[in-house]
User: Fold this.
Amino acid sequence: MNIMENPYSYTRAHPMEKIRRGIQSIEIGSALLLQLARHVRPVALKDLAKATGMTAGKAHPYMVSFLKVGFVTQTDAGHYELGPLALQLGLTRLQRMDPVREASQLIEALANETGQSVAVAVWGNLGPTIVRLEEPIEPLHVNLRAGTVMSLSNTATGRLFAAYMPAKVVERLLAEELARMSLGNNAAPPAQGSFENSMVETRKHGLSRTLGQPIPGIDALCAPVFDTADHLVLGILVMGPAATFDSDWDGAVAQPLRRCALEISRRLGRDQVDAERPRPAT
Assistant:
């Protein structure tokens, strides 16, 4: 799938792209800056050029220009790293960033591609909370709306946050929830071993999953969105009737869901390599 076909691509094509002309030299130079951003230490020109598929002679004039405007700096050894202008632009972008807004731009495409309901959840005072809901052409008639707080133990959204949020943040709310479930007439609390297994499963696959729980006949998958500090900021939930919902870990729902969550993470500044690397348990 190329950039023009992928609705979650990092550089989405503009509708008028075919009649718009860009500046190729800027696109080439941007590849050099992107490679610098992926390295912790300063990089030699020959290594930078090799990583971008060009010769050192071709890369050098770009780096000279970037030095002049402050996009990069150069060490005494002649190696390159990002400079003060890159830092200034990055900080400005971070200050203006709204994770929910970034997610909202993509979940409609996800709902259309999967044919299922999609929701965005954040961590609120009472736990994982739905803040945005996108329905497909045929909406799913469940009691879910903006402001709904999701169970930590019995929903895909809750299990995702339980798996990736710091334990100290989650443990009090989880204990209170399990106590309420033990005393009430609602869904029975999961066995401790079962819940722990679901946490391991979530971290292994990078997705959480529920099958017919807590609503019989409704399956769900939820994917994490991380920021530049590797903190969980959003959960992207896809749910639908078990009869039409592909609940496989790498199925027709899971794959576009992962792409969408990774794209949102990239828009929030998380490096692509880090985003695709398995995240250790907290």
